[in-house]
Structure to design on (543 residues):
């Protein structure tokens, strides 16, 4: 998941980063093919070069050696809403066939079966970033036909619905799971499996997806992590505390 | 002022209290004092409720929560928060929920004495459907539809910062999140600092000032007062404790045992810090000074 996500970044892009897998992916990209990547964290760190993987989104390690620090209203107004963020990373508990994400509740909002943390900055990233990369482990419960709650809009009901509503950002570009890479049909905006990771099978992906999943033809195979990527992951990024959500 | 006096004089039952610091500079010492004073029916406001509000919810201080991300940052769930929402224990908790941008904007509107502020956020999200305070407005100049959030003016703001002078002029560095917006939005302001310094120290470096003293009602000197969160230049996060919280808070009993031992059973933050001397030494921040700048003209 980490290397596949890192490879979708292009050098010198401005990336809005969260904690967890995206954080590892972005810091991997910065140490490999994207030395000029600009990391922005919603907490207000601009051009961060954290010496350790941040243990939370407000880690002072994001400040030490950063290009700048600003308040959160500044990050949201002048960077995100201004349209300066090329790529936003998102995760969630659920994603549906049109890339809508739920990180709010499982079940009914008023009487939830599971109360999840909520949006944080996810809603505005989904609405405002030029493109969004989603990182989420594959699983039947995580890939329902419709999410229980749209915290962060993808392509809504598909087709032109997102464009009609006038959301400034471009919406999800790719979904990286532990089994493969999925992209979106340019017209219908439906999720399509485009690449299988090494060791994963199409049957496995279908079994872990809650709708009749479309599959690209030909179906790609994700390149395994290179020796260089593995070295950075193991030697430079692995020593830090285990990253969960947040 | 002592923490006990500040909380007794400036925070009353039933009031709305914003306690900010975005995973950095979290006013834990103040929260523990509010728990010890058995404050009740508070509307608690924070972008990230964090362990601080998990403890205050479990202690029965909260009636309502206004928030945008309720997790244990970098670790997982907030179990007291989830028990209150999913099972109504120890009492039901009313929720008013935003995204970070939405809640930051509410405080900014309050700080600016405006009735609302608009944003390009929220289209397509289900958040407006569960929060009627998010309303659409039409721009009078372009006809564009935007979403609006109403001003939030809490009764009290409680903030942690690195230093202030006796008058309360406060300086903070590192990530400041929505500290300034919270302070200017609230009716009363309490600042808790690692150290009180002379006014000359403040006046030699005015760009670092977050708030002038005339905006601050009480300043409390409380070293280690943000533990287990971080304070840039002073101490690192006690990440072991954040991870242990997962276990401590998983049951109501475990959480109450913690409160007995580390909140009710400790008279002050000085005593709390004294019990954690080894931890405190381990968390001391490394040195990374910047070059002085010339304020001359």
């Amino acid at each position: 998941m980490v290397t596949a996500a890192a490879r979708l970044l292009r050098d010198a892009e401005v990336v809005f980063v969260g904690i967890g897998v995206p954080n590892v992916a972005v810091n991997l990209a910065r140490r490999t093919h994207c030395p000029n990547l600009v990391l922005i964290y919603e907490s207000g760190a601009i051009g961060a070069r954290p010496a350790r993987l941040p243990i939370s989104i407000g880690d002072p390690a994001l400040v030490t050696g950063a290009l700048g620090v600003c308040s959160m209203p500044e990050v949201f107004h002048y960077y995100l809403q201004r349209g300066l963020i090329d790529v936003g990373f998102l995760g969630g508990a659920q994603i549906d066939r049109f890339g809508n994400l739920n990180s709010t509740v499982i079940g009914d909002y008023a009487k939830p079966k599971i109360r999840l943390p909520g949006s944080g900055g996810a809603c505005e990233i989904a609405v405002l970033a030029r493109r969004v990369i989603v990182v989420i482990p594959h699983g039947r419960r995580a890939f329902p036909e419709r999410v229980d709650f749209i915290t962060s809009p993808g392509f809504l009901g598909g087709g032109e619905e997102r464009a009609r509503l006038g959301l400034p950002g471009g919406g999800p570009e790719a979904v990286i799971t532990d089994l493969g890479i999925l992209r979106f049909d340019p017209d219908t905006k439906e999720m399509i499996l485009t690449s299988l990771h090494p060791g994963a099978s199409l049957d496995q992906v279908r079994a872990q997806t809650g709708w009749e999943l479309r599959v690209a033809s030909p179906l790609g195979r994700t390149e395994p992590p290179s020796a260089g990527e593995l070295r950075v992951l193991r030697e430079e990024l692995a020593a830090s505390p285990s990253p969960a959500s947040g | 002022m002592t923490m006990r006096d500040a909380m007794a004089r400036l925070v009353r039952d039933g009031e709305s209290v914003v306690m900010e610091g975005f995973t950095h500079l979290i006013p834990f010492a103040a929260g523990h004092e509010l728990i010890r004073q058995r404050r009740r029916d508070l509307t608690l406001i924070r972008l990230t409720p964090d362990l601080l509000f998990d403890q205050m919810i479990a202690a029965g201080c909260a009636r309502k929560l206004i928030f945008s991300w309720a997790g244990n940052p970098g670790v997982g769930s907030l179990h007291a928060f989830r028990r209150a929402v999913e099972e109504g224990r120890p009492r039901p908790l009313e929720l008013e929920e935003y995204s970070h941008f939405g809640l930051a904007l509410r405080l900014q509107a309050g700080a600016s004495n405006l009735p609302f502020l608009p944003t390009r956020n929220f289209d397509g999200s289900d958040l407006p459907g569960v929060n009627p305070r998010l309303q659409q407005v039409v721009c009078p100049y372009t006809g564009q539809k935007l979403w609006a959030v109403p001003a939030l003016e809490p009764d009290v703001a409680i903030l942690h910062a690195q230093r202030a002078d006796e008058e309360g002029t406060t300086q903070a560095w590192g990530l400041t999140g929505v500290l300034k917006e919270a302070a200017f939005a609230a009716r009363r302001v309490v600042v808790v600092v690692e150290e009180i310094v002379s006014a000359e120290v403040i006046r030699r470096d005015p760009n670092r000032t977050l708030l002038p003293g005339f905006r601050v009602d009480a300043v409390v000197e409380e070293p280690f007062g943000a533990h287990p969160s971080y304070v840039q230049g002073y101490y690192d996060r006690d990440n072991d404790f954040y991870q242990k919280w997962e276990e401590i808070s998983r049951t109501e009993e475990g959480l109450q045992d913690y409160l007995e031992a580390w909140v009710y059973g400790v008279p002050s933050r000085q005593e709390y810090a004294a019990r954690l001397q080894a931890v405190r030494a381990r968390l001391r921040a490394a040195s990374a000074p910047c070059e002085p700048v010339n304020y001359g003209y």
User: Anything to note?
Assistant: Chain B touches chain A through 62 residues (CB under 8 Å). The mean pLDDT of chain B is 97.
